[in-house]
Amino acid sequence: xxxxxxxxxxxxxxxxxxxxxxxxxxxxxxxxxxxxxxxxxxxxxxxxxxxxxxxxxxxxxxxxxxxxxxxxxxxxxxxxxxxxxxxxxxxxxxxxxxxxxxxxxxxxxxxxxxxxxxxxxxxxxxxxxxxxxxxxxxxxxxxxxxxxxxxxxxxxxxxxxxxxxxxxxxxxxxxxxxxxxxxxxxxxxxxxxxxxxxxxxxxxxxxxxxxxxxxxxxxxxxxxxxxxxxxxxxxxxxxxxxxxxxxxxxxxxxxxxxxxxxxxxxxxxxxxxxxxxxxxxxxxxxxxxxxxxxxxx
Amino acid sequence: xxxxxxxxxxxxxxxxxxxxxxxxxxxxxxxxxxxxxxxxxxxxxxxxxxxxxxxxxxxxxxxxxxxxxxxxxxxxxxxxxxxxxxxxxxxxxxxxxxxxxxxxxxxxxxxxxxxxxxxxxxxxxxxxxxxxxxxxxxxxxxxxxxxxxxxxxxxxxxxxxxxxxxxxxxxxxxxxxxxxxxxxxxxxxxxxxxxxxxxxxxxxxxxxxxxxxxxxxxxxxxxxxxxxxxxxxxxxxxxxxxxxxxxxxxxxxxxxxxxxxxxxxxxxxxxxxxxxxxxxxxxxxxxxxxxxxxxxxxxxxxxxxxxxxxxxxxxxxxxxxxxxxxxxxxxxxxxxxxxxxxxxxxxxxxxxxxxxxxxxxxxxxxxxxxxxxxxxxxxxxxxxxxxx
Lengths: 297, 388
What we know:
- The structure holds two protein chains of two kinds.
- Chain A has nine helices and 14 strands.
- By secondary structure, chain A is α/β, with parallel strands linked by helices.
- In chain A, helix 3 packs parallel to helix 4 (100-113).
- Chain A starts with 7 loop residues before the first strand and ends in an 11-residue tail after the last helix.
- The model of chain A has no long low-confidence stretch (mean pLDDT 94).
- Chain B is an alpha+beta fold.
- Chain B has three domains: 1-21 and 96-233, D-amino Acid Aminotransferase, Chain A, domain 1 (2-Layer Sandwich), CATH 3.30.470.20; 22-94, ATP-grasp fold, A domain (Dna Ligase, domain 1, 2-Layer Sandwich); 237-387, Rossmann fold.
- Helix content of chain B is 38%, strand content 24%.
- Chain B has helices at 6-15, 29-38, 66-76, 126-132, 150-158, 167-183, 216-224, 237-244, 263-275, 294-302, 321-335, 350-361, 369-387, and strands spanning 2-3, 23-26, 43-47, 60-63, 80-81, 84-85, 89-93, 97-108, 113-119, 137-141, 186-197, 202-204, 208-211, 248-251, 256-260, 282-285, 309-316, 341-347.
- At the A-B interface, helix 4 and helix 5 of A face helix 9 of B.
């Protein structure tokens, strides 16, 4: 999914410390923040955004296209279901450590209602110069600039480094889609690439993957068919097997999820796979992708 | 993930109405002999460790007398199996097996819901069945809202080429396994083998249940009610100590100590150290709320005597680099490590963070991450040359 500058955005959990802090940041990035929800705090305002007791009330009063959740992990499932039941089409779920059964249940509810979910355990989505929904530094001009490279990343910290390396190399981003570090995700690598392929501003794709699971392998077919210049980096290729490397999804077990398998699948699909992030810019250049004129977001 | 021991999984199975062999948990050779006596003499002694392939490791032994059970128990108890010390044995009556099957329920990232697996080829390595005879492994994606419907379980069982008399009882066992999976927030429930006995019963001979750690707050009662002691988390003593402090720490065998924020960036830092010909000494992520734990984090890194240099790599988004850097500088003040330190600091708060490092250590962070990585590697190498 992409959230544009036209989309009205709701913040669930807006009166908490993180909700307040990031509401202001998201506003500063141009995101159209229309409402917030915090049970029992209806009637307040946070950075001039009206607060409601429930998602339903907020949805009646405003045109809401997307919701971003600043709620603790054990409350995330109910909060996503609230958004789905209120008919909100896009949900960005940031929390880490949501029980997997809750994740599967909320994704099933979203699927049945036609709601797209980004996350969980994602840092969010950025369209430079237009929107930033989540906890990415969409406001930092040395990290995000308008451009033509679509980035798909499982990690927020690494996605930030890669985005900064791109800007340093003269490339701006058409969109940054943080899909999240959990094993079960609302939007997979393949689905995020599919979104970018249908996005008018995207001319090249950077895939920031990591060990664990088979999402990069599953995306290979789509990359091969697209013929869009694609550069990939897979984190954790030198990590020891059978150890969970920080993210719940980043673990190699019984030969599955290894870096070698991902690299081989992506290379077979025609992507350039680099060994370290600083090689991404040069790899794009050698694929003939033109740097964008530097334009701060 | 908390991997329950076999006897704990079987406790959950029994409560859910799934047949398991009669058995007793024992901690001494004498108790093993007594249990064997009570169970009829012909028993299986099974080491209780959270490791796979116990049969191949000799940790599952069929014996025919209490005296033999005593000897096997004396040999297994206290030994190491799959990196775990054997503290207890499950002594079970031997079952006369007519046919062996494989059954499992897991969280499937592709269908984004529960997936039931069933094969008429039980008792062997399921990865091998999946790779060489995928047509023998039958799958059913479950709508988590509705759960596993008995009719769907029966349809799966019918198309799995089981002996006719096993179809109905295996379908019933699957729906009960699903209840265990659902009620314990399991990420995996696996029975290998699920058997048809010569008497015509369907019995779970093994039990593997992995409980999602993220669900621990609401599963605590269930976990506390299990018999025996939960197996220790995998890893070294130091890694477990780190986990208790809320830090993700993994010891590696190199000499470049690593402090970074975020899982993706930390993995990438290790990859970069390897890429430039160095060897990382650890994985340690101090992003998120963990930056407040900089002192114990740095202490963990320095407790490894092989560490000859330190690489600090921060890339701030949500996590502010100035806050993380201040934590690390305070830790350095407190612990005064006698090793060279290379910094790479980018993103939210970088200007303040870089100024702090200059002011307090008289060191300038590297502009490019790659340069910081190279500096840390060559510093470690120089130290090694001096030492040798």
